[in-house]
Design a protein that fits this description.
Elements: H1 2-15, E1 22-25, E2 38-44, E3 62-68, E4 71-77, H2 88-91, H3 93-101, E5 105-114, E6 124-132, H4 133-136, H5 163-175, E7 182-189, H6 198-206, E8 211-213, H7 217-225, E9 229-239, H8 252-276
Helix pairs in contact: 1-3, 5-8
This protein binds 1-O-phosphono-alpha-D-ribofuranose and hypoxanthine.
1-O-phosphono-alpha-D-ribofuranose (R1P) binds next to strand 5 and helix 8.
Function: The purine nucleoside phosphorylases catalyze the phosphorolytic breakdown of the N-glycosidic bond in the beta-(deoxy)ribonucleoside molecules, with the formation of the corresponding free purine bases and pentose-1-phosphate.
Pathway: Purine metabolism; purine nucleoside salvage
Keywords: Glycosyltransferase, Purine salvage, Transferase
Length: 288
């Protein structure tokens, strides 16, 4: 299996001169993060040996290499979800390819519905921790024989969202004047593709979940397993309906619309974070 990741990494290395240290996974409606990369080399997923295909609207299906503020990055314009029918191994395939390419830091973004009372559509939540619901019942990308070349059989997950990067992102948000819609909280992954029932929403709320979506946790588990430093952002695109009296309901078009609305703020925050993070070692530069 290691060979499959290596083959894809070798193909990419022979098709681009970029050697990224940072990888970004763009969530629903957040694909524009890739647009600001300079000196781009872009590949359709369908042209990359071993890569799965994106099937969801708002996920373009392109891997983009380039420079952002002098740092070399690779950006997934479109991710893979379990509900598309991919195995969890396939949904997280690119993360191990990034590791083999020399990536040290993974930035994950997603669109999510909020459960926390003080959260509103348009808020940006720094992910402090996650609840991996599929993982709790054994749907885990690390299931099966462990590949010791990537990491240990029983990896710790108690510190998978890097504290230094979380603090730095909050400082940057204050400096950019967007602290008013920044939050920090717990993301839960559910399987989807249906949105939550009211009873499910109430359950998640009572369990202390701040935002819910259908992705991210498997990618972060695989990244933490192979020693990548992780930073995660959820764009709150809707409130999850928790009341039987509420006549509103969520839809994917609305999710994408909020993505477009906040695209610039997310882009500015991620760009500045990358610009200020120390590459090549694990020390994060403090805000000025
Ligand atoms: O998690 P991302 O890919 O941002 O997408 C989120 O938005 C879609 C639902 O609108 C789901 O796929 C959910 O997971
Ligand atoms: O309300 C939601 N629930 C699950 N996934 C989501 N992705 C965007 N919004 C939501």
């Amino acid at each position: 299996i290691h060979d499959d990741y290596q083959k894809t990494a070798d193909w990419l290395t022979s098709h681009t001169k970029h050697r990224p240290k940072v990888a970004i996974i763009c969530g629903s409606g957040l694909g524009m993060l890739a647009d600001s990369l300079k000196c781009q080399d872009a590949f359709a997923y369908s042209d990359i040996p071993g890569f799965p295909q994106s099937t969801v609207q708002g996920h373009a299906g392109r891997l983009v290499f380039g420079e952002l503020k002098g740092k070399t990055c690779v950006c997934m314009q479109g991710r893979f979800h379990m509900y598309e029918g991919h195995s969890l191994c396939k949904t997280t395939f690119p993360v191990r390819v990034f590791k083999l390419l020399g990536v040290e830091t993974l930035i994950v973004t997603n669109a999510a519905g909020s459960l926390a009372d003080g959260f509103h559509p348009g808020d940006i939540m720094i992910i402090k921790d996650h609840v991996n619901f599929p993982g709790l019942v054994g749907l885990n990308p690390l299931s099966g024989p462990n590949d010791d070349k990537f990491g240990p059989r029983f990896p710790a997950m108690s510190d998978c969202y890097d504290k230094g990067l979380r603090c730095l992102a909050m400082d940057i948000a204050k400096q950019q004047g967007v602290a008013g819609f920044m939050q920090e909280g717990v993301y839960a992954m559910v399987g989807g593709p249906n949105f939550e029932t009211i009873a499910e929403a109430r359950l998640l709320h009572r369990l202390g979940v701040d935002a819910v979506g259908m992705s991210t946790a498997p990618e972060v588990v695989v990244a933490a397993h192979c020693g990548l430093r992780v930073f995660g952002l959820s764009l709150i695109t809707n409130k999850v309906v928790k009341s039987y009296e509420d006549s509103e309901s969520v839809n994917h078009e609305g999710v994408l619309e909020v993505g477009r609305l906040r695209s610039q703020a997310v882009q500015q925050l991620v760009t500045e974070l990358i610009s200020r993070m120390e590459i090549n070692n694990n020390i994060v530069k403090n805000a000025d």
